[in-house]
């Protein structure tokens, strides 16, 4: 099992990163939030999960071990594969994911592409005991710091993906209204990317 990689970022896209490990390049599929957090030519550390199939070996990477562990936990529910689990981590933070399962919050889970009401209910039934076994659920209260930092993180992430500082700031302006109610940098990043794609 490949659990962690540390190397130099050789290439980056909206949902993937290529890490150069002393001349050996590995492409790692990532959430938009993770991809936006790395910089070309700079060192990066990704916590990874290797998904083995008959015809493929696919490496998924995350900015934290907590996010990777939730990705793997989501896949332990029947009918949830790595693509939906990755989408889950793109939409929900680890704390939000655990809180949604523990609190039987189907509405939050159905925000994830590919998860309907029945799928959310089934996931809750199968994962609730596992989530409780992990221990206390962190409270989901946005802090002043997280609200203040979203713009800088999103702007830097967009610039890391090749957009100019001017375009990045303009995209941040366009999602400022969303930021008043949504503090997840991954979701804000995705919304900003969508505004740029429409240009």
Q: What is this entry, summarized?
A:
It comes from Ammonicoccus fulvus. The chain has helices spanning 32-36, 65-75, 82-91, 94-102, 106-109, 117-133, 144-160, 165-174, 176-179, 185-197; strands at residues 4-13, 16-21, 24-30, 43-53, 56-62.
Structural description of this entry:
Keywords: Cytoplasm, DNA damage, DNA recombination, DNA repair, DNA-binding, Hydrolase. The chain is an alpha+beta fold. It is 50% helix and 21% strand. The protein is built from 10 helices and 5 strands. The chain has helices at residues 32-36, 65-75, 82-91, 94-102, 106-109, 117-133, 144-160, 165-174, 176-179, 185-197, and strands at 4-13, 16-21, 24-30, 43-53, 56-62. A hairpin with a 2-residue loop joins strand 2 and strand 3 (24-30). The chain starts with a strand and ends with a helix. 33% of the residues are buried.
Mean pLDDT: 85
Number of domains: 3
For the sheet with most strands, the description reads: 5 strands, mixed, barrel
How would you name the CATH homologous superfamily of the largest domain?
5' to 3' exonuclease, C-terminal subdomain
Radius of gyration (CA) equals 17 Å
Helix proportion: 40-55%
Q: Please give the order of strands in the largest beta sheet.
A: 1-2-3-5-4
Structural class: alpha+beta
CATH topology of the largest domain: DNA polymerase, domain 1
- Reading the helices and strands in chain order gives EEEHEEHHHHHHHHH
């Amino acid at each position: 099992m490949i659990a962690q990689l540390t190397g130099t970022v050789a290439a980056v896209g909206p949902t993937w990163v290529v890490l150069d490990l002393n001349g050996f390049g590995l492409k790692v599929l990532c959430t938009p939030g993770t991809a936006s957090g790395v910089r070309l030519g700079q060192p990066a550390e990704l916590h990874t999960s290797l998904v083995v199939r008959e015809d493929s070996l696919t490496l998924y990477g995350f900015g934290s071990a907590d996010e990777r562990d939730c990705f793997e936990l989501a896949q332990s529910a029947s009918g949830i594969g790595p693509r939906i689990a990755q989408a889950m981590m793109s939409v929900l933070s680890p704390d939000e994911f655990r809180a949604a399962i523990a609190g039987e919050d189907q509405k939050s889970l159905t925000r994830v592409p590919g998860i309907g009401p029945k799928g959310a209910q089934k996931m809750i039934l199968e994962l609730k005991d596992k989530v409780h076994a992990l221990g206390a659920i962190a409270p989901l209260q946005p802090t002043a710091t997280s609200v203040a930092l979203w713009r800088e993180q999103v702007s830097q992430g967009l610039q890391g993906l090749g957009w100019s500082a001017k375009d990045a700031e303009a995209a941040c302006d366009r999602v400022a209204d969303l930021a008043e109610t949504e503090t997840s940098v991954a979701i804000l990043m995705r919304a900003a990317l969508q505004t740029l794609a429409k240009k």
